[in-house]
User: Fold these one by one.
Assistant:
Number 1:
Amino acid sequence: MENIPDTVLIVVDEAYYEYVAAPDYADSMTHFRSGRNILILRTFSKIYGLAGLRIGYGIAGKDILTDMNRLREPFNTNSVAQKAALAALRDKAHVTQSQKTNEEGKQYFYQQLKALGISCVPTQANFVYFPMDDSLALYNSLLKKGVIIRPMGPKAVRVTIGLPEENRRFIAALKEVISA
Ligand SMILES: Cc1ncc(COP(=O)(O)O)c(C=O)c1O
């Protein structure tokens, strides 16, 4: 941030912001408040669970927002999505519950993957990432068992942390695939 000149607009994608538990997470709002040339993007698709409504929000200075308002399409969100987004912002209990579910799922994944000898990259989001030889083969084997993960190139996978029963199902399927 110190090395970026003010002529450059800094865009920060904070799609997983609400999931972050690390106390040292970089606080983009401080930069916004100090007058930096910054646009912070947030979404209702992740912790709020409203991906199908296609709505999010941005935080930026008046000049940027005025320019964006000139360019944006007139009806780019719909009124139902806007109502739902406002209700979601008020629904603190949902966010707290989702954070708790995610944290518990994360610890479960860490522990289960470690027991299988797999070291996963520590996460601040609602998914884990770990190295896996032939990730495409794993993806296909799990797919046949009704479990969808995402291969990330040939040697790593990304797995979304779900509800406890979904997490257990993934681990059980993974164990079956590995032992086969
Ligand atoms: C890092 C990141 N940013 C942004 C998005 C976009 O979210 P949406 O377009 O649903 O608001 C996603 C969703 O997949 C994401 O993973």
Note: The domain at 93-179 is CATH 3.90.1150.10 (Aspartate Aminotransferase, domain 1).
Number 2:
Amino acid sequence: MKYSIRTRLTSLITLVYFSVFLFLVIASALALYFGLTEEIDKKLKLERNQMVTIVESEFLGLVSASGVNHDSLRKEVLGELGELYGYKDQFVILSLDTPDGPQVFSNGGIREVRPLPPEGLLARDEGFYNQLFGTRFYRTFVTKHDWGTLVVAIEGQTFFEIADELKDILLVGLPLTLILVLLGGRFLAGLAMRPVVESAEATEKITLTNLSERLPEYAGEDEFGKLVATLNGMIARLEHGVNRVQQFTQDAAHELRTPLTSLRGELELAYQEKDLSAGVQAALQKALDKAILMSRIVENLMLLAQSDTGNYPIEKGTFRLDVLVKDAIYDMESLIDERPVAVRLLHCDEVELAADHQLIQRLVLNLCDNAVRFTRHGTISVALKADRVFVEFSIADTGPGIPQENLPHIFDRFYRADRARARPSGGTGLGLSICKWIVDAHGGEIQLSSELSKGTSVTVRLPLQGTR
Ligand SMILES: Nc1ncnc2c1ncn2[C@@H]1O[C@H](COP(=O)(O)OP(=O)(O)O)[C@@H](O)[C@H]1O
Ligand SMILES: [Mg+2]
């Protein structure tokens, strides 16, 4: 979709306005033209009748006369015509068939009309014509009689004058009203589309963790109100379903916890028995390792299930993050055993952090645990830097790195980049997703970058005062 509905509505409104406007202008121009023409034609008919009466009662002598008589009669006709048509917007052309051939008389108030008749006007068939004389339009009426041809004409300029004026108004008015309609239409379309935009924004904000929220109620009982109600109904059903699944996970993890703990206890007890054969002892050791891994998984699952339902009680307190990090480094060193791996603390600001102590500890330990478990040789570099608002914890190793195509999934649950390699190292695949949740819950950011056979580095940025 290239154009928004708002833009399309605005264009539509403008187009409709423009078409209606154009239609009205054309229709009124036509009505005006025909109305005015009809009016003039009526006048022309009266004029014609009058002229015919005058010609037939007074001028017919000319048709048969000649010589001196002819000249005086001619003067008389011209005088009469001058009297009748001395005014401006009319004229008459009279062609009388005399024994000396056709005699043409014309008169009217307009000078430029004088060299009449224009070629062919008298030769025309009977009827009404629009004729341009000089610069002005005349409506002419041609009629044929026994004694010759009569043309009466009235200036038909009114329509063109009105049209001219109208054109001026249109040239200014049309763009102006078009702009008004465009702006008004845009405003109205925006108003009409606002609930849609608002609902879309609200929908965008709804995720698995805040399914209890709903789209803003829409008062109207129109199609859009129905859509909002339908969407809200769907979100409610989703919420219900998701709650059930999350509750189930949480309950399952909880149920597994107790038997696992006692299993671990029993195994540890059995392991401490004095006279065990080496085979049994090795088997017990393996079983114990598995039990420990399982209880870790269960514990992580429980944590994530609680975070999903928003049930995890985040307790905010102040503590020294640099001390926590130093403790973690100490733990790391003891986990490295014989591997040629050096742990370096590159930078360590003294930092007071307001956050959930247990969760932050878990975050740091998870990241340290990954670095230690995956790094065979080289260095693990840790840094802790703080400014007034944020603290940045970073840990970089020279481990095997993570293939580029796996990076987008690295924070997914149970995701392990290389299962074959990761499994014996005792991971659960939940560590990084827990880290991500902890960082999110504290309003921070976590970034992981990695290059195959070069190493991995993770940076966590947290607000010193937390957000909750
Ligand atoms: N520092 C690291 N070096 C190499 N790979 C890593 C590192 N950290 C994480 N990974 C990869 O990311 C996967 C997911 O990590 P994580 O969620 O902590 O699970 P786990 O550590 O339990 O396997 C790991 O299985 C591993 O493939
Ligand atoms: Mg891990």
Note: The chain has three domains: 5-162, 223-308, 317-463.
